[in-house]
Specification:
The structure is a homotetramer. The first copy, chain A, has about 150 residues and is an alpha+beta fold. Chain A contains 3 helices and 6 strands. Chains in contact: A-B, A-C, A-D, B-C, B-D, C-D. At the A-B interface, helix 2, helix 3 and strand 3 of A face helix 2, helix 3 and strand 3 of B.
Chain lengths: ~150, ~150, ~150, ~150
């Protein structure tokens, strides 16, 4: 069950720290190789036109991919981003962002994930961005392995 | 001179709004087709290991590219991100990020920029990320054209 | 039905010309916004280790995305590649490549497609690469519109 | 001097095999972390409009990046492409392509290179594409290490 995964405490820890905690990233679900995160609109997360800023969308995509990859790694390993690429498909004009990442492939220490980002309001959920991320598995400092 | 450019008020306006204003993006310089922005480290901008979060680095890269492209467009046009790709080359463990974007090519309504991101402390400045962004020129709402 | 699409003669023409014709790209199927192409292994298409060369894989991905995007455009328009990004996931060591592209989104004159590339032999079909392509819709020279 | 590099015979061997040999890729120069390759136009290398096919451009970019990265690795190691991304900036309508790759960073077994691709004729040389490639250092089969 997802909350038993490698280590859920790690995903939580990753998420509550620093930028992602301050921005309000929320973990919706984690399975091995998959993750879903959500983010509620705030005035300090938007761009010029009042939609979610592309940088915020990319940050959510990156972080969701990292949790998806990490959730499939042995305990004590963490996925670190090598590169990320995001296409913006529609204005992120909803009240919430939802990011769904899945691991496409792990080979050796390198993994690739795809991320779909949706913008949601009361009425509908629309795909607003799509990304791919390449990650490498890194050893966690011993102190951080529960 | 750079502060005369298309329209500096626009670049400033783009920058002080929403996410970029709240995060503290600072415009260092703008020339036609070029922009340099800076960002000072804060505890709400870092990741698990205490370095600038990849999403923050990508946001700064995206925004700097947008200003570089927009600075080369006719008045009343703004560069909007179609896609961005960033490679992370070294830990962003400095006290500041510096992003330098330059327009590689504008053809028709589509422009491509490259972005170098450096992490800086008292002692040195190191390249920590490199990105490319594809943008399209969009008409600004009339109300926004000074 | 797929062979009635915008214009199938165009897809065929695109495919039999120059590099794609000489390399032996084969159209398996076309639907609006989707395309599947195949390519049989030849000694002049491989790299050092005898697997399909990454450049050949990328060419097939690019071309399949172009046909998928073009198949969804009004007659007289063609999709031209703005940028393409491909991740190589496994050795392309089969006797054939299969590329399946689908249009994720068309907005205005810009479209984005994803491409899955499989390597196939008698026994199995394995995902060996994944790509995304950004295309712009261009007018065909009048002479080329049937 | 460039022909002393890690091992030049490897770069030559990589280049004369399979696709790159059949296509006529020519090594112009190699330095540690840098490579320049050239390709002469042929009717079997062009697309619909008679310009170099995007797939051929990407193949040249990929191969040039691979040689640039490999030329900086210890003997017995080869750079293998993890992912490549290319933006097409102008029609490749010249009689020749020139690709210039340089290693931006090697960290651990992962390297990143940028590639500028120019199209050249008697009169001029124009930037027609720009790419980035992520590579990983792999051990060569013992048999292949001179």
């Amino acid at each position: 069950m997802s909350t038993e995964l490698n280590p859920p405490s790690l995903a939580e820890a990753l998420n509550t720290k620093g930028f992602t905690g301050a921005t309000g990233f929320r973990i919706v679900s984690i399975e091995p190789g998959r993750a879903e995160l959500a983010l509620t609109r705030r005035d300090d997360l938007v761009q010029f036109f009042g939609h979610f800023h592309g940088g915020v969308i990319t940050a959510l995509a990156d972080h969701t991919a990292g949790i998806a990859i990490t959730s499939g790694l042995p305990k004590g390993k963490i996925g670190v981003t090598v590169e990320i690429k995001v296409n913006f498909l529609a204005p992120a004009d909803g009240s919430e962002l939802i990011a769904r990442a899945k691991t496409l492939k792990m080979s050796g220490s390198i993994g690739v994930a795809t991320i779909e980002i949706f913008t949601r309001d009361e009425k509908s959920e629309r795909l607003c961005a799509f990304g791919t991320a390449t990650m490498r598995a890194m050893d966690l400092p011993a102190a951080m392995v529960g």
